[in-house]
Every structure is written in C-alpha cells, then in structure tokens.
Amino acid sequence: MDSFELARLRAAALHDELAAAGADATKPLALVRAATARFSFELTFLEVGDPALKGARALFDHQSGTICCVDAGSDSARALLVAHELGHAVVHPGSSTCHDHDIDPARSTEAAPVGLQKVEDYGVRERRELEANVFAHEFLFPRPMARRLHATEGQTAAAIARTLDLPVPLVRQQILDALLLPVLPPPTQAARSPVFAPDPAQDTAADHRGTPFLLRAGPGTGKTRTLVKRVQSLLAERIQPASILALTFSNRTARELSERLATVLPDTDSAIWVGTFHGFGLDLVRRFHDRLDLPPDPTLFDRSDAISVLEQILPTLSLAHYRNLWDPVIDLREILQSISRAKDELTDPQQYRVFAERMAGTAEDDKARETAAKCLDIATVYEHYEAAKHTRGAVDFGDLIMHPALLLERDEVARTAVRLRHRHVLVDEYQDVNRASVRLVKAVAGDRRNLWCVGDARQSIYRFRGASAANMATFVDDFPGATLGQLGISYRSTQQILDTFGTFSTGMPLPPALANLPLTAARGSSPASPEIRTLLNPDEENAGIAASVRELEAAGVALRDQAILCRTNDRLNEVAEALENRDIPVLHLGSLFEREEIRDLLSLLSLAADRFGAGFVRIAGLPRYAIPAQDVKHVLAHLSDAADYALARLPGLVTLPALSAEGRAGIVRLAEDLKGFKPSALPWDLLTAYLLDRTDQVRVLAAGPRLADRMRAIAVWQFLNFLRDQSPVATGSPIQTLLDRVRNLVLLAEERDLRQVPDAAMQMNAVRLMTIHGSKGLEFDAVHIPGFVKTGIPASFRAGCPVPQGMVAGAAGSVDDDAHRSHSQEQECLFFVAMSRAKTHLHLYAHQRQANGNNREASDYLPRLGRTIRRIAVPAIIPLPAPAPERTAIAFPENWECTHEHVSSYKKCPRRFFYTHVLGIGTARRTTDFERTHSCIYEFIDWLAEERLSAPPGHEAAQAAFDAIWAEKGPHDSAYVTDYRALAGRLVNALVDAGAGRRFREAAPLVINYRNGTVVLTPDEITERSDGIIAIRKVRTGRRRKTEFTNLDYALYQRAAQQNFGPTAVVEAVHPSDAGVETVPTPKSTKTSDAKVETILQGIASGAFPPDADPFSCPRCPHFFICAATPRGPIAL
User: Taking a C-beta distance cutoff of 8 angstroms, is the pair 618, 606 a contact?
Assistant: First the structure.
C-alpha cells in the first residue's frame, strides 16, 4: 500500500473516531478543532503577515505542538488549512510550513503525468505537501461519505458542498475518487513472499566505500533492495540523511524507492532527496534561478507548448527543408525531437550550428548534404526557440538537465553549494543515463568517492533520448578508479527463463563484462518452459493469445498476473480489442483521447468552442439524448452560418421545423443540462459540474458491473485529472486551448504517459497490456510477447530526427551508420527487457502470413534462443465470427453529383467524407497568423482567375489587388506581420508568373465517366498554350512533395483532360512556393487508378464509411473528437 493510501486511511479513521465521539462532521471548522484537541495541539489563527507565520500560510511546530494559520477566508478555507497541517502532524515527522500553492482543494492523489506535475511531484517537499493534501481532503470528506451522499442518496456535488460548507472542487474530486477509482477490499490474509537465500553480493555492494562504484545487476536481482541497503549502511555510519541524493529516471521507480525507504526508515526517509533526474534538475533550476537568468519559478514547456509558440514563428523563417507552411506542426515535431536530442548532448544553439555548418562543408553525397541542410534549418529554429523561451521565462524538459549541468560545470559557487549539500550520490538504472545526465552526475559527485550506481546495460531502451549502454561501458573512464560489482542471484525468474534471455544476451553487441552476466535462479527450475506459438495470420495470432491466456488462468495463473507486451501501441490496441471481444478482461486504457467515453466529453466541450457544432454528432448518440440522424443533419445545417458558439444556440434549436418529437425532446434535455455554462469556463469546472450536478453520468459509470465499465470509469478519472494541468502558454478560451493541446499531444505522442493505468487500478483481475517500454521495472508470472516476426521484433530501421555529424559523444562512423547501430542495439535491449519481465511463463507468438496474405518470416532473433525455447506444434485458438460491416442508410437525391473533391475526401478517409459531405458539418480554418495569410492568398487566387479571363494582370496590379485583401483580412496584430506580407508577396508574384504566355478559359466543371458512375471535376484553371494544347491545372500553395504526382487527384485530372479535350490535352501542376509550373507525366495505364475510383463510388453508394486511422492525419482532422460516432437512423441528403 502506497503512502498516499496510508494517509487517506489514517485521515478516514480519525474522521470516524471523532464523529463517533460526538464531533459534528458536517461542520469542518468544528471537526478540525476536535482533531487538534484529540492530539493536544494548540490551534492559533493569526493575522496575515504575523511574524509567527514566518511568511507561510500555515505551519505546524512539532516541538511546541502548535498549528498556526492565517485568520482569513471562510470557515471552510480555514478548516482546510488546519486539516492540511494536521496531515503533516499525523503523517510526517517534524515541523512544516505551507504556502498558498501547497494547498489545493481540487488536487487528486495522483499527479497527471503531463506538464509540471510530471516532474515535480517526486521532489521530497512536493510529495509531503501532496500527502498532506490527501489527508486533509479525506479527513474533511471521506470517500465512503462521498459515495453514500452522491451515489446512494443522489445528492449533487453542489448540494453536498453547501451542506458541509466545503469547497466545491474538494467535494467534486473526492466524489470522483470514490466512484471512478476501484475500491478493492483488503486481503483477508497477507500473501507470504517466498524467502530466498540472501545474495552476499548485495551487502558487499551496499558497504562499498572509497571509490566510484558501478553495480551490474541483471533482471530480478534486487537492485532497489540493494540501493536501500546502501542507504541503511550510510545512515549506520551516522551520515546525515539530508546529504544523500538518490536519482532515478521514472516516477514509478522514484515512488517505489521512496516507499521502500519509508518502510525501513520511517523517521529519516523524508530528509533523503529521492526523485527523478528531471525533478532534481527542476530543484536546481529553482535554487539557482538568478544565476541562470530565470524567474524563481520558471514556466515548464512540454512539446505541445513549444508547438504553440513556434508555429507562429516558423513560416517567417528562411528555411530550405522545413516549409510545410499550411501545417507547420508536422515539421515542428521532427525539429523539436532534434532540439531535444541536442540537449541530451548538452549542445546549445551556437554549437549546433557549428556542427551543422561543418557537416555541410564536408558532406560527400546527396544524403549527407540533405541531412546537413536540415540541421542548418534546425539550428535556425533552435535559436528562435531559445529566445522565445527566454522571453517567457520558461524552460523545457531538456533544460532541466542541461541548465544545471552547464551551470555546475562553470560556476564554482553553485557547484560547491550543491556538493556540500549532496555528499553521497546514488543513481539507479544507470544504463538509462545520457551524456547530459553523466555530466550532471560528474558535477554533483565531487571527488566521486561517494558515487554509487547500479544498472544493466542490456536494458538500455531509451535511445531516443540519448541513453546508451556505452555510458556503462565507459564508467571507468568517466570516473577513474571506479570499482565494478555484480549481483548473481535472480529472485524473479525460473532458471529456464534466465537461460533463455541469458543465451540471447551473449550475442548482444556489448562488452562481455556487460553482456554476459550469469544468473542463478533463487526459485530453481519449473515444469514450464519458454515457448513459441506460430499461427496463420495476425488475427489468428490474437486468437492464439486469447487461448493461451485462458489456459494459464485455468492452470492457476490469475489474469492480473499475466501481461501482454507489445512493441507499439497500435498492436496493443489490436490485441486489447481481440481479448475484449472474447470476454477476457484487460487492464488497458490505450490512447486516452481516442477512447469513446473521452471523446464524448471532448465533444461536449467543443460545443463551447465550435460555431458549427460538430460535437453535436457524437452527443446526439448518447443514450441520455438519443437524437436521430436526420434531426442531427437539420441541426448542423442550422448551425452552418456560424453565428455564435453552438453552446449558446442550443435553446433555440428546439424551434427548428421538421424535427422529430424524439429529437426535440433530446435537444431540450441537452439544453437544460448545459444551461448557464459559458465558453469562457475552465474545462474541469464545466465537465465536473455536468457530470456531478447536471447528470447522473458518474453514478452510471460507477454502477457498471463489468470490468470494461470500470475501465471506462478509470479513463474518465484520468481525463479529468489531466484537465487540471493548464498550458503555460494558453491564451484566449481555456476550452479551445485545451482542444488544441489535445490534438498536439496526440500528434507528438506526448500523451503516452496518460495511457498508464492509475495505481489504484493495479490490483483489478485483468490482463495487463502495455508497451515493452512501459513494462520496464515490472514483473509478471506470465508474459506474452506477440509479433515475434521479421519487421515486428526487431522492428525495421526508420530514420529518426536529423543529427549533425560530431554532436553525439562517442559516435563512430557516419550519422547514418551510428543511427543504424543504435537502432539495432535498442531493438535487442527491448526484446531482452520483454523476456526478463517473466517469472514463470514466457510465451512468444508469430504468424506465417501478413493480413494481406503475403508470407511473413519468423524473427531473426529466434535462432539466437537456441534450444531454450519450446515450439508448440498446433497452438490452440479461440475463434470469433467475422464482424458484419457497418453501413449507413443514405437516400441520395436524383441530382446529386459526385465531385472530384468527394472522391479525394473519401480516399483520404471515408469517415471524414461522411461527416463533411453527408452530414454537412461545417469547419472553420484555424486562426493562426499563417492561416489568415493563406486565406488572403486563396481570395487573391479567385480574383486572379476572374481577371485572367479578360486580361492577365501584371505584378504591380496583382500586388495592389492583394494589398486591398490584406488590408481587410491580414494578420495585422501579429509580431511577424511584415514577414507574412513578404511571404505572401512572393507567392503573388509566382502565381502571376505562372500565367505568362497563356490564354485562360473559364474553369467549368468537367464530367468523367466510370463503369459504375460519373465524377464531376472542376479544375483550378484551364489554359491554352501557344501551340494550341489545352492544359487543365491544379494549383497548390504548399510545397511540392516528392510523390506529388502519385496522388489520385492527378489521375482524375488526367481522365478529365482526355475525356473532355482529347488525347493531346495535358495536366499541369502549379506550386508557386517552390516548383512553379510542371507538366504532369501521363500514366502508361489508368487501370489501377480507375479501379480505386470505382471502389470509392461503390463505397459511397453502399453507405460504407469506415475511419482510416493515421497518426499524422487524425489529430489534425476537424472531426477528430467526434470520430467514429454515427447518429442513429437513416439520412436523406
């Protein structure tokens, strides 16, 4: 049980004790007074600014037994202060002082794993304050009371807050914790852990003194136990606890270490600094902010925040490669990865430019020259990014290591202060350090005699952030005189599993002293041997995994003790769906923002930010409203004028003609549920009021009988917890800012930490599904590893972010060579980590054919496992019938025409076509400075097309016409308005030049005939060349792609040209931003493209609109939040 749950249990027990003794539990101030009397504490309320408060809001003096609080605010506010200090008094030894930001009525037990909370909650002080917050909330309003009042008695959160005189946010959060997180009964008897013979090497390592020390510790050998022994050994020598610094890489590991120390050292653990490298870096940045030219509490950017800042700047920069001006986020994703990678190597913008220029000067082939050119672009963006952060007093995650490391290297005063405070440095998971971390450790560790590290080079799986097993190999070089130790007993796995991953590791490209670490199983051997099951195809592989899970369950392995580890989240989602379809419970959230219940809430929020009301499509399908599809179409048509936010127009929708009675009733109910909400509301406030005051949604979620219902409840809890983290660069509507941030988090894969199931759910009896990266540090009785095939495990190499030659310390050969080598090593480490999570059962799965029927070979790693793995000849499966395809009944009018835009839209995504062209959802362009510029360009293109029919204008007339458009609609409030006007001016001139020597015709619609229908294409331009040949043109203002002419649009243009103007007609592509005018090559055959168009025509006619998921396109789609909801019933166009 973790420290937060212990704090809650103590608080609830105290509440019950005082209530039983006669204290009024409905009066918070009376309750805390009874508590102070119970402990014989003196409670004093003082004026703001009283010297006794020492500048704090409240404090607890341990020696005198006094709680002092400011005498300000309501009774409930003062009670919350006192309850917080009571939490310190009951849970923590010693005195405490608390400030405004320490006391948060809406804070939950677990921090949202994003933004600042991702870093700071595992600092010593922050953790203590969070535990005191948890105690205060539970003491004033225990979860059993929250459950009874809201779920059983049906009281709203607002009514409860009024009755108990408590802050509404506190009441809401306690209800959410009580109802959405699982309540697990305490075990009737504590499970006995097996007792194994101790490994003397643990004590030897813990007692080491005098030189830097690196302990090589394989899976399950007791790394954390040995680290705790090290701390105990130091304290036994009367080393001050505050002088011990214990660093690790993940919050999970930091939490586990903190709890282990709290168990064995309850009186001293709080004085030891335990946390992540980034948490320690944040502590140093705050401590020495003045020396870093930063504010005392700098803003912390995540990549989504960086995107928000840079997407305004990027279009104004003169870049050679990164010129996706319409959607700069795509380019910025790669650029920010490169900047982050530079910070892993402590490379600042100036050094990065030097490396890039040197690479450009020495590049000998096209690939190297292209990489160098990209790096020069990145250097420019890097410089502007750092300047933008400095202006805002901000840092990013990379800065949390880079700034302190460089500061301590150059600043003797700061270095001395840190070394005096942290005399003993312990580093867990040393294989995960990068060069920035190594240099920070060097700077902190002083003469390094008291540096103690532990790790396993075979588990180095974070290459994308610069981690490398090479740092373990060079430990003796980085820390001269170092001593190496090794643990030899594994307490986790059976001998068979040790032999399997041990056999594999001997072939890993590591020094023998790191690759070959023989282990003896404390558990001995087992009847179960590692095995591989080969099925026919991926679907059958999923069926085989399901059968294997059930077999093990029947043999006594509980579902909660089984884990399925996949390399990618996409594969995890496939397996999760397959198991759920076979009624096997799974503990898997997946992409939080793409879950149905979360998209329901996002769609609800979008009504306050979207004038076209797209969210109505999804909300209409909720059982609470049940609005038919045809009514939805009527509503969307009414909202298409974008007169106001959809939220404000809900009451007026009930008067629309032609609504069904059912639809009108649903709209009335929705309008009542959202009555009084404002577009300016904070997302957490709006949704918690909707869920806890206006509707019974939380009660319904909590009452769900199935584990899948519990997972939906957990997902909602996780999402609401995330909403409390506000973007530091937010401007304008909080709801719109949130929606934009969600899109960016998904696009950048920055939401992966939100896929983690909250700790409170870990004991649910369900199969655990996670990526191999996410399984690090965990163990399971049975481990299933799907996709053990070529290009599955190991994955094929994909080029990552550009890296200039010479930047990566210790890299050998070219940048490309080093990238391939690093990828190969990481893939081997990933497989090693996956296998070594298993305690008793290890099952691998492969398939013989791909989904398209092509053959698929077994993994290249299979021969390296030798005879340690058993092959199952005929694996069992749990089959399922093929699902029936979904169809939507649509009545098309006789005059309906399928246009080339329809074909193109359906080709990109049938579901997007449905929303845009069937339901008719309006969409607005985003209002970035570039997009406002782009809108001006499109308006100019329309003007130019009209003018060319009579007399083509020259540059001067065109610029004058554009000036008129710009004066009315340009981004004049932008700091970069001059740059945007210059950019637009170049495009205007290029568009004019594209018409030189041509006669233009009116771009009338052209009909294209296919076997099962016709397509109507309206070209952007129709011109006649001087030789009389007709050219129909497609104009694109973006950059020309390398594969531009493979786009189906050009096949449609070719068909239209030949069918309407004869075989001599040509198609031209116009790219004013770079390529100018090009003649599109005529294809040798149209058979393939014709078949694609005919398939699309058939799909539209039959009502087949499946979503075509894509990690890049989906987050940028205007319908991202409503996908793939379909309103109930037929639709008539």
Answer: no
Contacts of residues 197-203 at CB distance under 8 Å and 24 or more positions apart, as own/partner, are 197/489, 197/522, 199/487, 199/488, 199/489, 201/485, 201/486, 201/487, 201/488, 201/489, 202/226, 202/229, 202/487, 203/229
Question: How many angstroms separate the CA atoms of 251 and 121, rounded?
Answer: 9
Query: In Å, what is the CA distance from 722 to each residue of 679, 751, 830?
Result: 19, 10, 29
Q: Coil, strand, or helix at residue 1089?
A: helix
DSSP code of 327? -
Q: Is 24 helix (H, G, I), strand (E, B) or coil?
A: coil
Enumerate the β-bridge partners of residue 43.
67
Q: What confidence score (pLDDT) does residue 114 get?
A: 59
**Which parts of the chain have pLDDT scores under 70?**
1-2, 106, 109-124, 184-196, 269, 325-326, 730, 925-927
Cβ atoms < 10 Å from Cβ of 773: 15
User: 212, 479 in Cβ contact below 8 A?
Assistant: yes
Residues in the chain, total: 1133
Which residue type does 401 have?
I
Q: What are phi and psi of 288, to 5 degrees?
A: -115, 35
- 638 vs 157: CA distance, rounded Å: 35
Q: Can you tell me the distance from the alpha carbon of 621 to that of 629, in angstroms, rounded to the nearest whole number? A: 9
Q: What pLDDT was estimated at residue 700?
A: 93
Ramachandran area for residue 1047 (φ above 0: left; ψ -120 to 50: alpha; else beta): beta
Pair 1044, 1069: CB distance under 8 Å: yes
Q: Do 1092 and 593 meet the contact criterion of CB atoms below 8 Å apart?
A: no
The pLDDT tens digits of the residues spanning 1116-1130 come to 899 999 999 999 999
Question: What are the start-end ranges of the E strands in 510-635?
Answer: 520-521, 531-535, 562-566, 586-587
Phi, psi of 424 (to 5 degrees): -125, 120
Instruction: Count Cβ atoms within 10 A of the Cβ of residue 279 and give its class: 0-12 exposed, 13-18 middle, 19 or more buried.
Output: buried
Closest CA to 618 of 638, 597, 646, 640: 597
The answer to whether 28 and 145 have CB atoms below 8 angstroms apart is no
What are the backbone angles phi and psi of residue 848, rounded to the nearest 5°? -90, -25
In the chain, count of helices (H) and strands (E)?
A: 43, 30
CA-closest candidate to residue 830, choices 759, 901, 773: 773
Tens of pLDDT along 666-703?
Answer: 999 999 999 999 999 999 999 999 999 999 999 999 99
**pTM of model > 0.70:** yes
Can you tell me the distance from the alpha carbon of 621 to that of 618, in angstroms, rounded to the nearest whole number? 5
